[in-house]
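Handout, section B. The chain below has 392 residues.
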Amino acid sequence: MKNVITYIALVTLVLVSCKKKKEDDNTSTPDPYATQKTQLKTTYADMAFAVYNDALLTSQDLRNALYAFVDNPSLTTHNAAKQAWLDAREVYGQTEIFRFVDGPIDNASDGPEGLINAWPMDEAYVDYVVGSPNAGIINNVATYPTINATTIISTNEFGSEENISAGYHAIEFLLWGQDLDANGAGARSYTDYLTVGGTNSNQQRRGEYLKVLGDILVAALQQVSDAWNPGGVGNYRQTFLAMDSNTALRKMFNSLRVLSGIELAGERIYVAYENSNQEDEHSCFSDNTHRDIYLNALAISNLYKGNYTRVGGTLVSGYALEDLVAEVNATKNTELLTRFQTTETLIGLMYTPFDQAIVLPAERPKVLDVVTSLQTEQTVILSIAVEFGITF
């Protein structure tokens, strides 16, 4: 009897051991796409550095143009500064796909995004507006006797999200002024910066403010560019490349779905459409919102396709989500690529300037078409994410 019990115990032990080994084998099954996911991380990091480095370089050009304008205010230097702003925005719009993942641009602890691209902006927080000639930090000498980086950074978004004192849109306002023309952008004169015989008051403070804004913008973009620099030591790029590949993949899909649906379709287009209010559009002073929209849509496509063309024409590319998804579900891959093209086509059909597209009865449906296409884009992105076990 003892031998029988011993035999049964031995058989049970073997069966349990075999079962455990089988379960262990299941949990340690190699990821068939492990190599591809590692390649994806490298492509993502290379693209992030390239676009943020371009953003840094164009912000330096912008800063130089702002200094040249303030030091010698004229129609020529004013127009050059405005063109430099527009050129810088062509790059920055393509960086937006690297947000919404607690990365170096909008990390909760030290991300500088609020000093770069915060909006919508209450322009009266910074400078005079129609009906309030003494409005803003620039004209409030008693409270803000010194115009410097400390003053501007400490007041940015202080007390309200619309109390924006720094970034591209503060620069935009100080270059263009309020947009009071249905057929054009803001019409601020360069004479607002002439310290002798100039228009409005506090011309010197306005010039100092504009120069400091350029310095702050460059410093903020330097921070993000450094974080992705392949030559950096202990920076975010190294952290990202060492990250679990599935976690990194989830971050990529999160950026795609947030920018396409929640942010671009919702916050950046539909809110302005629903309110019929130019104050809700992205670049309301320069009438450049149509470019913001296109460039954000392009950024989504860039990440998915794994390519970005640098300002100098160099193509940065590598193994892409497009390549991985084609292996897993070719039909959905084609569907998303087709949707990207549809979205870009519909954006091109919108009336410009955008502040009129959202109020003219015949043009409003075209804006809604873009919103709908971006929402569809988000839906397809979410369905693809599920293929990899990713849900939000």
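Note. The CA atoms of residues 82 and 156 lie 22 Å apart. Compare this with the example in section A.
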